[in-house]
Structures are given as structure tokens and as C-alpha cells.
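Q: Could you write out the predicted structure for this multi-component system? I'm mainly interested in how the pieces pack against one another.
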Amino acid sequence: MTRVRVDLNISLDGYSPAPGTSPDNPMGEDWGPLVQAYTATRTMQSRVFGDTTGRGTTGIDDRYAAAHFDGIGSQIIGAAMFGLHSFPDDPEWKGWWDDEPPFRTPVYVLTHTAPRPSLVMKGGTTFHFRNAPIEDVLAEAVTAAGGLNVCVGGGIGVARDFLRAGLVDVLHVAIAPILIGHGNRVWDDLRGLETTHSVMSEVAESGTIHVTFTR
Amino acid sequence: MTRVRVDLNISLDGYSPAPGTSPDNPMGEDWGPLVQAYTATRTMQSRVFGDTTGRGTTGIDDRYAAAHFDGIGSQIIGAAMFGLHSFPDDPEWKGWWDDEPPFRTPVYVLTHTAPRPSLVMKGGTTFHFRNAPIEDVLAEAVTAAGGLNVCVGGGIGVARDFLRAGLVDVLHVAIAPILIGHGNRVWDDLRGLETTHSVMSEVAESGTIHVTFTR
């Protein structure tokens, strides 16, 4: 059965960092400390950073990183995550990820502008651009997933849209035990999520607190 | 060495419930679910609710509940927690706790009004009323503690005053895995607390996430 998953990296005070404006540090100064333990995992080193030597941590953080990629049949991301807001006038822009993005599935990019033609990338990723209600895009993504799961990949605004609409079956938050004091507030308008989903928490060797809401 | 401790019960979205206005439910509707696992502990059943039969849970939550009471030599609370705001004109008001309050130490009550005479209660509790800067009251509480610890007991506004002033050595938060969506925001203005304190987290059998900042 297809399930809709959201995985987020957040701070103990409930923030996802707001992206910075520096080209050298597009995710902002708080992103590094927040995802440090996650990017150190063997799964992330291999899947996202292309390491082929088996480097990376293999504990609880890695188990969650692997679960993030496991059984994903299609993905949905926002226009900003793809880079449409940063490069609105470049019809040749193909995202931040080079010729072979780490998604390796169909990826539906939500946009409020006129959709572009789909982009077939190396390694199994195809970007489709959709200007449509999230429910309609999700229906298309579910079909494309062919019985596997749909990952709503971010940014945080897109993830929150799906959460508020009650469309998410599994929400996993990796909480770094740091207080960053500002950014995008993750939890607003989600009162009572524990009444529709069950909750399971565990602490990784790194100190990261993994909380998973499942229905 | 005397350490200054704060113990808080908060929600996953970082709130301490705002007290309600109903006399039947003075702590508000969210307080019950938030502290359910904590009040179920053997320590709380014994220390706060007077159970003498050994009833209550004995796992990780109980270990934290016991640590809360362990080695406390004096305590500091706000006027609202004592009830001065609810009964400002009753000079006979002696707090919410009956003749034998569960504190069993000197308790310094912060007030912005004219101090009242100290109240000697049964069981070792004496209430002292102080209209003075928190640093001065803390110095007096440290002396009264006689080498034991000082507990800053709440409400949340008083705890946050001490945290923001850098006066807290141990902050323990018991995070219930629920989203309540409103109340008093616990984490504001505490960015970087993990740089002055070390952080340790663990998950209790109840699902409560215990996070402790220590310096």
C-alpha cells in the first residue's frame, strides 16, 4: 500500500532553518549543525554525496536515513527546492543536483507559474512540473509510485501544506538537540496530530531525537 | 556544590500550557495530557499525592521525578504559582497546597507587591515573599540551601527569567509527544543553550522524551 512520507530535520525549538541568501551557503548558517549527524551517515554519504568507500556512521541515524530512501516510488517537492524561484528566467535550469540527481524516481515539482516540459535526468530521476492543487498532484504521484511510497520532500512550506491537509501517513522528524531561535516554524497548526497518528521516539548515538508519527 | 535546577513539562511543539480560568481546572485543559506520564510515577504519587501504598510507575519517568526532588535545599516560585494573583486581597491565603505543601524546604515566592510575613507550614515548608531582583533572591536561596540544590519551580515565566539570565545549571524538560498548538512558548530567546550546556536525551517507556541541559 502506498504511504505518503515526510522526513524533516528540525531543531529542538521546532524550527527548520530559513534559507540564507548567500550563494556560498544557500541553506543558511543553521543548516550545517542541524543536519550534521544525518549527513554523516553511511546512507547519506553514499546516496547523496556519492561516496563509494562505505564511509559514514551506521547506527540509529543511518537506519532512519536508509528508511527515508527505502521503497520510494515518486516524490513531490516545491518550486524553491528545485530552484525555480532562484532562476525563474532560465528555461535551461535543471535543479541544484547536476546531471544525476539523488532522487532516482519521478519528482513532481509544484509551481504557481506555467509548467515547463518534463526533464529526464540520468539515474532514474524525471522532473515533472505541475501547477495544480496538491491533492491532484499527489494522486498523480501515487499512480507513478506503482504501489511504492510517495515522499513529500520539501521545502518545509510544502511539507506543512501536506501535513495540514491531512495527506501525510508517516511524518519522521530528526530533532537535533540544538536551539536556533528562528527560522520556519514546523509545528504550527498541527495540534492533535498524536490523536490521528501513533508516535514513536528514540534517541540516536549522536544525540539526535527521532520522532515518528504514523497512521 | 549548589546547582540551580529547572524541571519543566512541555509539549513536543515547545509549549507549556497557559493556565485556564476555570476554578475546576486551574491549569487548563492541556495540563492533564501533558503531565499524565509524570503524575503516574511512584515518586509523584508518593511525594505530591500522598499515596503510601507504593502505587505508581517505576521506569525512566520515575527516575527523573525522583531526581527532581533529590538534594533540593530551597526553591523559588512565582507569585502566580503561589496564588497571589488569584487571591491578591486575602492576607490569610497560604497557597494551593493545604497545610502541608509538598516542597518541604524554604520556598522563596517572587512578588512585585509588598512582601508578606513568612509562612511556616507543616512538613518543612516555609514560604518567604521577596520583591527583589532574581539574582538577589537566588543568592538568598543558595545560602538557605546549605550546599544542596536550588530548584526554580515555576511558573514558566519565572523559569524563563532564570534561563535567559544564565542562572540555570541544569534544565530538564520532560517532553510529552503531543502537539498542543498554543500556550506559553518555552524556547524563545534561548538560542545556543547547547553551547554553554551539554545535552543528554532519552525516551521513557511512556513515550516521554527527557532532555537535560547541564553545565
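A: Regarding packing and overall arrangement: Chain B has a mean pLDDT of 92.
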